[in-house]
Structures are given as C-alpha cells and as structure tokens.
Amino acid sequence: MYEPNVVGDWQEYDEHAGLRLRVHGLERAEPPRGRDDAADGLTYFRLRITVENRGERRFTVHLEDGQIDVRVGTEGESAFVDWRNSQFIEGFDVYPLRRVTAVLFAAGPESALGQVDVQVQVRVDDDWADRRLWTGGLGLCDEGAWAPAGATTHDVLAHQVSSFLRRQAEEGTA
After folding, report:
1. pTM: predicted TM-score of the whole model, two decimal places
2. How many CB atoms sit inside 10 A of residue 118's CB?
3. The domain containing residue 113 runs over which residues?
4. How many domains are there within the chain?
5. Helix (H, G, I), strand (E, B) or coil at 110
C-alpha cells in the first residue's frame, strides 16, 4: 500500500541518486505583498518545499506553478494558490550538499485546514520525477487530536495518518 509522506518527511528519488525533497513549514501566514482579492474570506497559510542534493553531481531543478497541487479538507477541494506571492524554483543548479527552497502561499476555508494535502512533481534536469504526496494540517493539536505530553504536530499527524491507513486496510480484509 502506498503511504503518503507526512509534512516534514524527506522523500528520496531513486532515479536521481542523492536528491531528496520535502514539504515542511506548514503554518498560518499572511502573504508579504498583501492578500489577493480572490481569497476574500479564506485563511492564508504558507508551506515550504525544499530540494536537497546529497549526491555527487549537480542537478538543475525546476519547481514552478502547475507542478504543485494543494488540496484541503476531507473532500480534497483545491486550495487557492497565490502565485503572485509565492516563490518558485526556476532552473536552479543545486550543487552537492546544497539546498533550494520554494515558498508557497495558499488559502482555504478555515474549517478545511485541518487536512492539507500537497502533491509535488519536480523536474530534474530535463526529466520529470514521480509525483509525491505529503499530508498535514493546521491546528491539529488544537482540535482535540491524540496528543500525549510532549507530542509535536508531526507526531500527531503521523499517528492520524497511520490510524487512517490501518482502518482502510481492516475494511478491505473483511
């Protein structure tokens, strides 16, 4: 069974030795150049997508609009992505032991931000890498989710994802 990554997890790319990617820094944040009129009534959030090169050769990385899909809520509705305020990676050479980060501003209904799914398909050199999915949410600890003392949002979400996948597997074995 394919398990999505939890926001904050690194994902290795087998076809590009040493290259890895993660979606992280999911938090409420207002965009630096002001809100877009189309996002009226929606809650803004920011996330970061970092590409790291732990290999021995340089990679040229492209991560632009159309390569990132953000969905919110249990129904997976499309979030409003503020392309004007976001910063992408457009043909950047990532040398060994270096990183490059894209910053994305998006918005959605407050009630749907407990579940945020981010699908990324990075282009490396002139090849498209496989799509990868990260799942997270805003305010998970505030919603009465499972949270032992000292648990981080990452721990809570990892538990929720594991529980969901376990329930799905159990339903299929009846």
Report:
1. 0.78
2. 23
3. 11-146
4. 1
5. helix
